[in-house]
Amino acid sequence: MRGLPLHEWSIAEAGRALRDGTLTATALVEDALQRVHALDPAIHAFVRLDAARAQADAARADRELAAGIDRGPLHGIPYALKDIFDVAGMPTSCHSHLMRDHVAAEDSAVVTRLVDGGAVLLGKLATHEFALGGPSPELPFPPARNPWDPERFTGGSSSGSAAAVAAGLTRLTLGSDTSGSIRGPACYCGVVGLKPTYGRVSRRGVFPLSYALDHCGPLTWTVEDAAIALQVLAGHDPADVASAPQSVPDYRDGLADGLHGMRIAFPRRFWSDMAATTGEVLADLDRVGETFAALGADVVEVELPPFEWFSACGRLLMTAEGYAIHERMLRMRGAEYGRYTYQRLLPGAAISAADLVHAQRLRLQLSATLERDVFRHSHAMISGGCLSPAPRLDAFPRDWPPTDASKLTIPFNVTGHPALAVPSGFDRAGMPLGFQIVGRAFDEATVLRIGHAYQCAMGYPDRRPPGCAALLPGAPS
Prior knowledge:
This protein is an alpha/beta fold. The protein contains 15 helices and eleven strands. An eleven-stranded mixed sheet has the order 1-3-2-4-6-5-10-11-9-7-8.
């Protein structure tokens, strides 16, 4: 690892070097700032860079580590936030004209944990407006672009979060996930994205989209780094009514134990029968199942309820709650929304109480079905993620926002189970492909163990977006 360029060092490797004195947090920050200045004009991952704060935080971390003060595994590690997370004294724009001048009064709960853990904030990252709209040109910041091909979509809505990790601008970003907004961008950009169990990570101080479906979690380059990040982020927050009072295990304990004796469910028909699934993705997912079997797991095909049931349930909940959250601003300042966001929020006004009750009942039924038919008999489940590689940005329609017909992520927002997006390979054009590992409630440790075993077997993290090198100073023309 230490023979690689500094931006390719993992959180785990950088943490060891910070503690043995061969690396400083200041060096990490200066390397990150150089890459942001060189690469971000083409990628647009950042909407706000706070170099002065990052340099001051890094200098403090260096002094503390030199004095033997160790705040935890993220001490001295740079990170960046999707711009719906509050940081005291910093604007939280939600990528919207409506919020561009809104300055947060206090830190979100996860930022408090990161500050207490000595992590170093670089700034705020692009999203879709209010974590909902598409890559609209009329918003105050340009849409983030995919580092593997800047003409391609990053996925939404944690678009800047995935792009920043893929481009090596930072090892750790935070995103939110209501219908797949961590895992979709992770699959499209070839990074790791973790949606923890509902209630595992506090959402206090994060602008909401759906109280029933919102999750917060990390995006990283390796599964081990996601485990390190979750160690800091997880924990009960009494000020968040959805936060669960569950104990937090050591997520790296047992991470390298392998898969022998594990039973992994493989619901192949869940994606193989869908029109959106490309042949390359189907073949890739079959290889994933074969890889897990070769690693010693018992891979067993199972049946799930139709995807359409999960999707209808989740979309109704998200649309109803999104409208409730935005109702006042829609009435008073509707013209200031981006077109995609407005069109996706407004149907919530027509959802009846009966519709909402039926969706809430279906949510409970679907969750119980997974527990009974899958997790009673299996340690975890493999699922497709994005059913095609990242589309071109110019493919999006102008008359309606893009749908999520090519993603299989919303089912696990509906059920609340932890889900980890892991890169699995590339299509013929060199664009990333990925899949999900879904686990029992609050068993992120097993999900991470399975993902780590896969990455160790495949060696995928060594491949980076080739176009980024050409944008750096001194690159051949």
